[in-house]
Write a structure and sequence with these properties.
Chain lengths: 300, 165
Amino acid sequence: MEDRSQTRRDFMKMMSMGAMAALSLGSLSCTRAQVEAFLQKHFREMTEAEKKEAIRRLEETYFRKYGKKFHISTQPADTAVLWGYGLDLSRCIGCRRCVYACVKENNQSRSNPQLQWIRVVRLKDGSLINLENTEHYYNPEKVPEPGFQYMPVQCQHCENPPCVRVCPVHATWKEPDGIVVVDYNWCIGCRYCMAACPYKGRVFNWGQPNIPPEELNTEVHYLGNRPRMKNVVEKCTFCIQRVRNGRYPACVEACPTGARKFGNLLDPDSEIRYIIENKRVFRLKEDLNTEPKFYYFFSA
Amino acid sequence: MKIVPLVLFAIIAFGVPVFAAHNNEYPVSTPPLTEGIFPCSNCHAGMDVNAKKRELKDEHANIKLHHAENDRWCLDCHNPADRDKLKLANGDKIPFTESYLLCGQCHGNIYRDWKVGIHGKRIGYFKGGQRVYFLCVNCHNPHDPKFKSLKPEPPPTKPERKNGR
């Protein structure tokens, strides 16, 4: 005889789970998009079809929210690439053009909360090793000021990133091309990564992000500059939406002194390799063994 | 018969080099000449060449030479016979789009860095598109080359204290 109790138990289990799901989602009066967002998988576990579906849903949500047609890329990393960044401290004048170009390109919240991925710190001449005596609220009439040096700090895209190790839900990880990214839909906002980062490279959306609709950048990457939501952590991605298409990051193009350099560490003819091989280079807090891919150098 | 479409195809496929028609190795941005001033031969064609060091009063009055001014004057860099070109120390005529050759005569180490993209900047695509190099004169006034100080963008807002804490 057939084992009927077994099938009955399976049936009951399925029914009760279905009822629970229907109850918990139905009683909250969610829209269909919200239900789909809730059930969305981790980005790295999605199939191509699931990614496509998630992108379609996101584009629809953004259109409803901002009235603009977004183009969300999921372009993966190129295997022959490891991105590296160079910053010429002998040329940086601390004008913060990079900060605002970054805010605009990457759809950061403008005010309340104001979020910026680049922090330009000012140091007294001769105190480069003394990072405790820095400040980033300086506001003189003109820069550079005599007697001071400037050092922009942003995500250093560590080879051994402490932020990734502490994330309890694996919402942040290092891509094969070296970019440390966040799946904002997977982030639970616990901010362990912010506590772990020795460079203050991450910022948190305490409130609903504020972006003037006319200043929205609609060319976005899923793991980069798409508009974020409240209660997620965000950070510099080397402009993932630009560099994976062969373009320079926005901060590189905005710098009026040309202090910012970018290139492929695996390409022996790249700018970044020339800098590492020929200039005086250092990395921030090297003693922590985070192995940043952000190289400060002196050209003069 | 077959060459014409081939040339057309080449232009369509690789794009017309917009900026540097002479030198594709360093595709540079447009030289920042004052509007309406170029070609220089418009005015200079019929004029006598005056190589004397003097204060410029009628035209180019805004040019105050602060670039090793004791050692040089206009015609050390500007070609007296053809004002639409610049002149190297060896007498070679070069277009304004190749003025980096002129600067590189004295600033050799900077020129070396510029060629590999370390001094100055490049914008656009480093792969799969047009990359544009900035000319020396896009950032430095050739007659007064020291980089001018700038007004900085506003500092970040300080975190607010709320609820009396």
